[in-house]
Design brief:
It is a single chain. With 334 residues, the protein is α/β, with parallel strands linked by helices. It contains 14 helices and 14 strands. The strands form 4 sheets. Strands 9, 10, 11, 12, 13 and 14 form a 6-stranded mixed sheet that branches. Strands 3-7-8 form a 3-stranded parallel sheet. A hairpin with a 2-residue loop joins strand 1 and strand 2. The chain is globular and about 65 Å long.
Amino acid sequence: MQASGKGSIWIALIVVLLLLSGCGTGGAGKSADSGGATGTDKGTTDTQGAASTDSVRTIEHVLGKTEIKGTPKRVVTLYNGANDVMIAYGIKPVGIVESHGTEPVYDYLKKDLAGIPTVGLETQPSLEEIYNLKPDVIIATRFRNEATYQQLSEIAPTVAVNEVYEWKETVKLIGQVLNQEDKGTQLLADWDRRVADFRTKMGDRLPIKASIVNFRADHARIYYMGYAGKILKELGFTRPPAQEGDQWGVKVNSKESIPDMNADTLFVFNSGKDQAAIEKNVEAWTRHPLWKNLDAYKKNSIFKVDEVNWNLAGGYLSANRMLDDLYKMYDLKS
């Protein structure tokens, strides 16, 4: 978007503050240099706001319409799914948000994102750090960044998807931004082929009624239609009647809610850093008589899954990793 008069003043104030505080020669400035050196697989330059052409495109997204000049070279991503999708495109951002729980990035992305500056947590990225990286474009979400969207847009053109777990929309949006829509179409077509292959090889074992259960240190959660839930639905799994709805899921504190988890199969993962407390809580729930009444328990069909692949990463590559997990669980050749 074009900067407004107020926006120009806002940016000028940032510059003055940075000069007064010495930030221009401090750590943030070094991060910008690091980002330029890391670059992208297609040749990021150190030129501020560099773009390959002068053509202007208007991209419509959930937070409005944004004008982007040329093909952006310096991209900052403000959610983990976008970190992932940029690598799926073979292009490194110049700035990223930190991952959840495995700082600074998830293990499966460490090689590809090594040395790239972080701009803070997904829940609260630093506007100053983003500004210092001199991005051509910022990839955001309505869920995380709506309140600061105008400020972000004054730093650089900013586009957004609705939710952090909408990885297909992220693939499409980034394809538009990078002038690589054909590549995005190919990525999604590759995914569709894998989905069709999985469903064919599963045959009449589908549909399988499945629940996604998450244990924390002091409670449990049942996930409905978030990241993993949507993928499972696409693959031919169904949900129990008690879990119908489009919300992410529910937080449950009482073990009397265990029957709401009932399904033919359970996919279970743990979350949090206090491992002792989590394990104690898991034991309390899984030793309860109601747990042993679950169909999945009786069928010995409870799978412990990776939290990053199944919940946190929210990207194209992690979706494929989740599908890899399912191929292994059901003894299928991928």
